[in-house]
Amino acid sequence: MKVHHVGYLVKDMEAAKKEFMALGYSDGEVTRDEYRGIDIAFIHNGGYCVELITPYREDSTVSGLMKKLKNSPYHLCYICENLDAEVERLTANGYVQMGEAKEAPAIDGHRVVFLMNGSLGMIELVEGNEGDFA
Ligand code: NI
Fold first, then answer.
1. How close is the Cα of 51 to the center of ligand 1, in Å?
2. 2-133: which CATH number, 3.40.50.970, 3.40.470.10, 3.30.70.100, 3.10.180.10?
3. Is residue 20 exposed (0-12), middle (13-18) or buried (19+ Cβ within 10 Å)?
4. pLDDT of residue 130
């Protein structure tokens, strides 16, 4: 599976964007994900796509992680054509699904899901064809 992005927790979105831009990344528009309680911005540097994520409320899906990790990358997201089939394949091979598959407003409404693996930690799947994300 091709990598779509690296998910990167940041405490302060604007401060982080400024520092990433100073390292050569593009600016990215911030999208609010009200279901997950987070703000998201995708920034690019060459072939690398980084998803900056910061919680805007206490009960966000990343508030617990944020306390542990502070500013840190924490997941890789992979592109798959059939999300349900891929979840079935991975969960049959030791991955544990974390929550239901849900549309991601910051990725044009493509469905995403998170899974845990004892040897890899957290991964994300986004449903679509590689061409959708070019
Ligand atoms: Ni992600």
1. 6
2. 3.10.180.10
3. buried
4. 84
